[in-house]
Amino acid sequence: MLYGLYQSAQGAATNQRELEVTANNMANAGTTGFKRELALAGHYRPHADNRLSFGQGGAPPSLTDLPGTNPFDLGSALARMTGGNGLAATAIDLAQGPLNETGGDLDVALAGPGFFQIQSDDGPVLTRDGRFTRGPDGTLVTAEGGRPVLGEGGGALNVPANAARIGIAPDGTLSASFDDGTNYPLGKLSLVEPTDPRSLTKQGDGLLTAAETRPVDPRETNVRQGFVEGSGVDSVRETMSMIAASRGFETNVNLVKLQDDTLGRLLAAARP
Q1: Which DSSP helix (H) or strand (E) runs through 140?
Q2: Is it the case that residue 215 has pLDDT exceeding 90?
Q3: Is the same domain home to 225 and 238?
Q4: Which of 258, 214, 240, 251 is nearest to 14 (CA)?
Q5: Which of 212, 197, 196 minimizes the C-alpha distance to 94?
Q6: Do 87 and 184 belong together in one domain?
Q7: Integer Cα distance of 105 and 166 in angstroms
Q8: Rounded CA gap, 78 and 212, in Å?
Q9: Using one digit for the tens of pLDDT, what is the confidence trace for 133-188?
Q10: Same domain flag for 30 and 107
Q11: Where are the alpha helices (DSSP H) in 39-133?
Q12: 37-43 and 85-92 as β-strands: parallel, antiparallel, unpaired?
């Protein structure tokens, strides 16, 4: 057995997943409010028989601490070898995207952390896409999918058809102005953030869910009326990541072929 063959195959699989994540990011470079994903590689821990503590606050190991150090015990050494890199997880990059001015009364963007809450068939979900519009029944809905936008308290928000203008304050409070000079409050957008950002899960169409949420800190997040947030994808950076992952994949595949050929020659030489 060539141990390196398995590690090279493992590396190629990791590079392939990195390419898939990067390709999805690049495909959404123009998607409003999109948050890029990161492919996080991790190193597999040594076998449990390896009693190394060096690097975790312990003293440097001696040769007797290393498994398989006996040169005549090669089988034991191979059996105890582990390690290699693999895809540990994917994470969502929550960095602020660019704010693009539209001038629309119902276009809003968040400057700072947090998400809008909207209603889906499976319950409340999160989004950074603030392209809202008025539905046929007056409900404030998303431009994509027509999902109701939720206000504080979990109820839907309604926009009067005869309003001359809709105002949205930095804290998310909506108000309607009429031609007679009157002004009426309509409610307040529900602005939340995940208690644990690692619990965020993408659902497609720019929607996310989180295990638990809490209201955003108004000192850190402002609502900007007449703007929408652009994609958080930097095409140049993603292109560089794709090139690096492609080269890594090619290298690992070539190493698999090389070691497979080496094993074939070894078996051929061992035949009587």
Answers
A1: strand 140-142
A2: yes
A3: no
A4: 251
A5: 197
A6: no
A7: 6
A8: 45
A9: 999 999 999 998 899 999 998 899 999 988 889 999 999 999 999 988 899 999 99
A10: no
A11: 74-80
A12: antiparallel
Transcribe 160-178 into DSSP letters.
-TT-SEEEE-TTSEEEEE-
Q: What is the pLDDT of residues 58-103, one digit of tens each?
A: 444 443 333 444 444 444 444 455 566 777 678 899 999 999 999 9
In a domain, 9, yes or no: yes
In this structure, what are the phi and psi dihedrals at residue 22, rounded to the nearest 5 degrees?
-65, -40
How many separate domains does the chain show?
Answer: 2
Give the span between the Cα atoms of 63 and 71, in whole angstroms: 12
Q: How far apart are CA 33 and CA 227, in angstroms?
A: 11
Q: Name the residue with tokens 């704010």.
A: 99
Structural domain span for residue 200: 99-229
Q: Is 232 exposed, middle or buried (0-12, 13-18, 19+ CB in 10 A)?
A: buried
Nearest to 125 by CA among 196, 59, 194: 194
Which residues lie closer than 8 Å to 122 by C-beta, 6 or more apart?
A: none
Does residue 197 share a domain with residue 115? yes
Residues 219 and 144 in one domain: yes
